[in-house]
# Entry
Amino acid sequence: MATTKRHTKEETHAVSHATVSAHTVKRVFNFNAGPAALPLPVLERIREELLDWRGSGMSVMEMSHRSPEFESINAAAEQKLRSLLGISEDYAVIFLQGGGSMQFTMVPMNLCLPGKPVDVLHTGAWTAKAIGELKKGILHNIAASTEAEKFARLPHFDEIKFSSNASYVHICTNNTIEGTQWTAPPDTGPKTGDVPLVADMSSDIASRPIDVNKYGLIFAGAQKNLGPSGVTVVIVRKDLAERADKNLPTLLQYRTHIKEKSLYHTPPTFAVYVVGLVLEWIESLGGILAIEKRNEAKARLLYDAIEASGGFYVCPVEKSSRSKMNVVFRVAGGVGRSAAAQDSEAIERQFAKEAAAAGLVGTPGHRSVGGMRISLYNAVTLEAVEALTSFMREFHRTRG
Ligand SMILES: Cc1ncc(COP(=O)(O)O)c(C=O)c1O
# Structure
């Protein structure tokens, strides 16, 4: 079992009867796709500050969102994201509720221009969800799709057919379910003029450097790379936020949240606090370049283990499209409905069961595609991937 055994120290707090008894903590290696692993130092910090946030005598959960304490937490989280990702003052950074999914509705509501379609690069289940919302009466164009190939690769740039007058282009930079990731966004400029690129970065934000200036809007649910569920980060060019009709529901206009610095209504205070801590942790490791190096090393180790298995493990994704965040593979090569595939599914269930027993949790693929999926978000350690690849070799040795 992969464990980190630690003893909490007896802590004293301003509230005299609040004590934490000593106990042993067992931690598994967590490869869940989201909500997902959080950095251990962040969890420890939360524990330290849980009952008394920096002398305030209360938990962040108990604070008024109008208090100077929470305002400082909110502002610090925004500032950390700005400095880590290099976000200029041309962009607003806001913390919203409703998850990544709410953005499938909110983005078109705010950014669509009359008679100008939304161009979508259709690369998997999450762009399908975005398209599903557009189908409810919004002019749109599928500028490229790899659905015919079961999304096992991303479109090549020369396959993309942008409209001449799109409101914006929608892209999902990392396809969490299919295990594909754009290495660089397609340039929407030369073909379409000044068409903003809207990126769903829910599963790869802050995992590698990006040039924010290439995007009109970026959104990401926090629960994979940035923190717990309950808060969604939106980075939006301020001028684009002004496209929205002022008669839209107040809460669904970006400008409302920009104007009120994410405090128009009660925000998910604890989630914002944890996002701030995660960003501080990234900074302490050396920032986004350092985290990218770490993420690359983890992904290389896992893909190499798959390739070295001689076909026992098979990654169905074309090499140039493979994600460094979500690695998908089949065990014993089975895909489809054949008897061999059914055997493979049984082996995959066994793989997940034995992995979990060995302290390697969250290995099954998304229920819509099956197979295995290993999420390697920022908080997942190299040690976790080493433990997983050892397990994979042993599983192959006894089953292959
Ligand atoms: C790429 C991507 N977009 C959107 C979502 C939806 O996010 P939420 O569950 O926060 O609505 C997810 C969730 O896994 C995702 O991976």
Q: What stands out?
A: The pocket of pyridoxal-5'-phosphate is lined by residues 34, 99-101, 126, 172, 176, 200, 202-203, 221 (CB under 6 Å). The CA atoms of residues 61 and 270 lie 6 Å apart. The radius of gyration is 22 Å.
